[in-house]
User: Fold this.
Amino acid sequence: MRARIREKREVAKGTLLVTFDLLGEEVDFTPGQYFFVTLPDVGHRDDKGLRRHITVVTSPSDKGVLGFATRMRESAFKRTLDELPVGADVEVEPPKGSFALPEDPSRPLVFVAGGIGITVFRSMLRYIREEGLPYRVTLIFSNRDRESTAFLDELRALEQELPGFRLVLTMTQDPGWAGETRKIDSRFFRDYLGEGVDENTFLVAGPPAMVEGVQQALDEAGVEEENVIAERYSGY
Assistant:
C-alpha cells in the first residue's frame, strides 16, 4: 500500500518520530501491533535492505495514519529515513502481531518500558484516552537520562489528563535528575505497587536484556508467569 511521509520530528535525542498518510486508505489494528515499511532506494544499501517491521506508535483512532518512532543509527534503512523529506512516498503493509492491550479493563495494568519500548505503550495510552476506556494503568519507564527519553513531556501531560494513569520514571545515569534512579528489580515493583503485585497484568517492552531482567524481577516479586506479557525489541 502506498503511503506518504506526513511528519518527521525528533522526540528525544537521537529518536525520530515519522508518521505516514495512507492516502485515503484506512487500516484497522490493535494497539501493540507492528507494521512493515519499505523505503525507496536513495543510494544507501546494506545486507538488511530497506524493509523493516516496526511497532505502531500512533493510535487506531488516528484514521488514515500510521507512524513509528525509532532510534537513529547508521543502517541503510535509517540513513535513508533520515534523508527522505516530508511528502516522499513509501510502501507500508497493514499492522499485525499478537502483543496487544488486554480486552478486560477491570484488571489493573502495569506497562514496563525500557528506552524505545515506549512506542507500543504510547499507542495504547493514546487509544485509551481517545476512546475514554476505563483502564487503570501504571507506566514504569526506564531511561539513561531525560534528553534520551522519548515522549517525556507528552507522558507527563497525559498523566494530568487521563484518569487512572500513573507515570513512574527512573533515570539511571542522569546526575541532574532528582527523582527515581534505580534499575528495575523486585524491590522496585514492591515499592511502587505494594504487596499485591500479582493482582496486576504486566506488559513489558524494551531491549532483550532489559525484558529478561524485568521478567526475572517479576518472578522474584511473586508475579505468576501467566500475568506477564513481554515483547523484545532488538533494534536494527
Observations:
- The longest strand covers residues 2-12.
- DSSP finds five helices and eleven strands in the chain.
